[in-house]
Write a structure and sequence with these properties.
Layout: H1 7-17, E1 26-30, E2 37-41, H2 57-82, E3 86-97, H3 98-104, E4 110-116, E5 121-127, H4 129-139, H5 155-176, E6 185-190, E7 204-214, E8 217-226, H6 227-247, H7 251-263, E9 269-272, H8 280-284, E10 302-306, E11 309-319, E12 322-330, E13 337-338
Antiparallel strand pairs: 1-2, 3-7, 4-5, 4-6, 5-8, 7-8, 9-10, 10-11, 11-12, 11-13
Length: 339
């Protein structure tokens, strides 16, 4: 026969599902025979339906790995182009709508629209004005100081930033192509973010934020990757990682393949005979027959730089009718210097 509940039992059951505030926050269970109640907290996690999770944890990890490789390659490339030390690192990976991304940007800024023909869409690359103007100053022969206050780019400055963004596109293609072959082609640079036609305002985008640092100046570069555009590449990235985790591969074969890949890589080799520091006025007044005084004596020889790093000293000359350099001494890895 069923036992009738007392008022105390009813109150205990009600307390199980409600709190004084009227919300379900804890389960209450009666300990058998003791009359004591034990509280067990309920773990809940909020879910924002306006920002669904685009990427799984494995995909986020894979995207980070790819762009960490991009950061290393970009730092080396910019160090060579700017003749100074540039570092880059992935700061965060997030996802927003494209409209929300635009709201985060300063105006004016340096926002590049980049076409990906193989995916029939565009991505965006935003470089914070603080580091962008430092790059421009360095390209014009300065020390790489940022501008005092933000302003739109002039025509000459925009041309210089196009060079920088094109280098970014080349290095970005270099890290993605082993997984998914595609090109990144600069279409335009906009100062006003609202004028950049990349994707619909409500489309979800993956944001890869990177910190760029040149000497004492730092700034953020953000890759805005519309998911609807990059989805095939991201899915291929996930499949590649699954094969890697399951198969592992023969270490000797992987080492041999890596060695062949490095052996066939192209590197930039420069020979520096001397350096001279000129003002813009002196540079504009240069005429045929003018003599430039270098910082080193004429018998000091020349310096061999590989990817902007000093690796050897030698004597310039000719070989088989071509200009050549005879290497007289090589530097150890610990003695390398940036050119």
């Amino acid at each position: 026969m069923a036992e009738q509940l007392s008022q105390a039992d009813i109150d205990a059951l009600l307390d199980t599902f409600t709190t004084p505030e009227g919300g379900a926050s804890e389960f209450v269970s009666a300990a058998a025979g003791s009359g004591k109640r034990q509280k067990r907290p309920v773990e809940t996690q909020a879910y924002d339906f306006s920002h669904p999770d685009l990427l799984s944890r494995d995909q986020v990890r894979s995207v980070r790995t790819v762009h960490e490789g991009f950061a290393q390659a970009l730092a080396k490339r910019l160090s060579t182009e700017l003749l100074t030390n540039v570092s880059a690192s992935v700061a965060s990976i997030d996802h927003l709508t494209y409209a929300e991304f635009l709201m985060l940007l300063p105006s004016p800024t340096v926002l590049s629209v980049v076409e990906v023909p193989q995916l029939s869409g565009n991505i965006a690359i935003e470089i914070n004005p603080a580091i962008a103007f430092a790059f421009i100053d360095r390209l014009l022969g300065g020390e790489g100081h940022p501008l005092g206050k933000t302003r739109p780019l002039t025509a000459i400055e925009q041309g210089l930033m196009e060079r920088v963004v094109e280098k970014c596109c080349q290095e970005l293609a270099g890290v993605w192509n082993p997984l998914f072959e595609m090109d990144f082609q600069l279409q335009a640079i906009e100062g006003n973010p609202e004028l950049a036609r990349v994707i619909g305002p409500n489309e979800m985008v993956v944001l890869v934020s990177m910190e760029l640092r040149m000497n004492e100046v730092s700034g953020v570069m953000t890759l805005c990757l519309p998911y609807i555009v990059m989805e095939p590449a991201i899915q291929r990235l996930s499949q590649s990682n699954m094969v890697t985790r399951k198969g592992g591969g023969d270490p000797e074969r992987l080492r041999s393949a890596l060695s062949r890949s490095v052996r066939d890589s192209r590197v930039r080799v420069d020979v520096e005979i001397g350096r001279a520091c000129l003002s813009i006025r002196e540079l504009m007044e240069l005429e045929p027959g003018d003599v430039l005084r270098f910082s080193a004596p004429c018998r000091a020889g020349a310096t061999l730089l590989i990817e902007g790093v000093t690796r050897a000293e030698g004597s310039p000359g000719r070989a088989n009718g071509n200009l050549a350099l005879r290497v007289d001494s090589a530097r150890d890895r610990g003695q390398e210097e940036k050119g």
